[in-house]
Amino acid sequence: MHEASVAAGILDLVRQHVPAADALRVRAVRVRIGDMAGVVPDSVGFCFDAIVAGTEYGSAFLEIDRIPAHGVCGDCGRAAMIDSLPPFACRSCGSPFITVTAGDDLTVVDVELDEAPGGP
């Protein structure tokens, strides 16, 4: 299950950008996962919860925005949503020459922190 390594990588990024002294302030980690990213979003969330449990980042919640797959037909030029599983074919002309334009990404968008004690 490579979702566990993806979740561990997300936590590593959080650790790089949020000092351990502020770890308890981490509330949410927002990620975008495309339908064609090659991972199961729910499994990434489950693995993230398991990895942060019992750590200083244990209060962190993974918020996942799922991004549908879109592509452009290399023959007729039509842009449209595409199925996330092969075989890919243009819904207009049936061509298999589809270039994916969205939905293959896996991105950490931001990290939400509680206000610092004594902060505004």
Which descriptors would you attach to this protein?
single chain, 120 residues, alpha+beta, hypothetical protein PF0899 fold, 3-stranded mixed sheet, 3-stranded antiparallel sheet, elongated
Short description:
It contains two helices and six strands, in the order αβαβββββ. It has 120 residues and is an alpha+beta fold.
Layout of helices and strands:
Layout: H1 3-17, E1 26-34, H2 41-52, E2 61-67, E3 70-73, E4 79-81, E5 98-102, E6 106-113
Parallel strand pairs: 1-2
Antiparallel strand pairs: 1-6, 3-4, 3-5
Give a structural overview.
- By secondary structure, the protein is an alpha+beta fold.
- The chain has a domain of 80 residues: 2-Layer Sandwich (hypothetical protein PF0899 fold).
- It is 22% helix and 30% strand.
- The protein has a three-stranded mixed β-sheet with strand order 2-1-6, with helices on one face. Strands 4-3-5 form a three-stranded antiparallel β-sheet, with no helix packed on it.
- Helix 2 links the parallel strand 1 and strand 2.
